[in-house]
Amino acid sequence: MSDEIHLPFEMHTPLEKIWVSLQPHLLSRGYRLRPRYDPEWVPSWTKIPGVYATECEDSLRNIGALLDAIRISDGTKVVMKQIDTSTNELPLAMKLSTPELRSDPRNNAVPVLDVILIPGNDELALMVMPFLIDFAVLPFRRVGEVVEMVEQFLNCLEFLHEHYITHMDFCWFNLMVDASRMVPRGCHFCRAFDRDGHTIGDFEWIDRWAVRPVKYYLIDFELSRELDPTGNHRFAGKWGQDRTVPEMSETVSADTFKVDVYQLGNVIKKLTDRYTGLKILKSLAKDMAHPDPLKRLTAEQAVKIFQCRKLKWTARTMEQRVWKRTTPFIDRFMVKYRNFNTII
C-alpha cells in the first residue's frame, strides 16, 4: 500500500488499473468515470507549463475497491464497489433492496441502484450505490442532529435483527449520510472538504438542523450473515473494525446479535466522548456496550428505551448546541453568532 501511495501521480496503482480496464464497459453501461481512469488519459498537468500535479483534479488517485462515477442518464453521482461474488455481500445487499424490505422505513441499508457484471470475470461484480459521505465527517451542531442519527441506526439494527440478519461490522466507518442537501454544491470523492478536487477554500455546507430530516445509511455487508431463525446465532472469527468487543475471538463463538449492539453502542459512546452536550445518550450507550453480553441490551430493548426517553426530551433540548471538545472558542463564536460554518 505504501509503495502505491508513493507512485508518481501519472502512474496508476494496480487497483486503479482494474478501473481503467473497466472504463469502456462502464461507459457502455451508462456510467462515466473521472478522466484519470480513461484508457486514453493524458495527465492535465503535463499540458500546462508551471502547473504542479497536486493542483489538478486528475492527480487524485483512488486506493481501494470503491470508486465514484457519474450516471450519464441524469448526471447523478454514484459509487461503485468491487464485490467478491463468492461472498454473501451482493445477494444480501440485493435482498435488502427489494421493494418489500425497502418499504420498511427502518431499513437504512444502503440501496443497490445497479449491478454490473464484468465480461470474462466471474469472480467480481460491481455494485452501484448512492454517493454518500462518512456520517461524522461534518460536525454535529445540535443535540437533535445526533438524536436523529442515533434513532435511524437503532431502528436499522432492530430491523436487521428482526429479519435474522447480523451485520458484524456495525461500526464507525460503515455509517454514512446522504449529504446532498447539507452540501448542495457537492464534494469530491477523494477530498470530503473539496468541492471539485482542485479548488481550495471553495467548500460550503449547511447544518443538518437546517435541512432536516437527514437520511443515514449502513454500508458494507461483507462480513454479514443471514441466519436461520431456528439455528445457531453464535459465530467466531472476523468482527469488523471495533477491536474492543470483549467477547471477540477467533476460536470461541459469540452471539452475533449482541456484538452488533455493542458495536453501535460504542459508536454512540465515542460521540458522547467527543462532543459536549450529549449526556442524554450516555446511559444508553453504556448499556448497549456493556462488557457482559448477557447484561447487554438487545436491539429491540435499545429501541424501546430510546423511544421512551425521546418522549421526555423537549424541543428546546433538541435545539441545544453541541461542540466537539477540540473546537476552539473562536470557531464556536463564529458558528453561533456569525453564521459561519467551519469544519471543526
Automatic annotation (TrEMBL):
PROSITE patterns: PROTEIN_KINASE_DOM (PS50011)
One Gene Ontology term of the molecular function aspect: protein kinase activity
Top-level taxon in the UniProt lineage: Eukaryota
SUPFAM superfamilies: Protein kinase-like (PK-like)
Entry-linked InterPro entries: Kinase-like_dom_sf (IPR011009), Prot_kinase_dom (IPR000719)
Domain Protein kinase: 52-330
Protein name, UniProt field: Protein kinase domain-containing protein
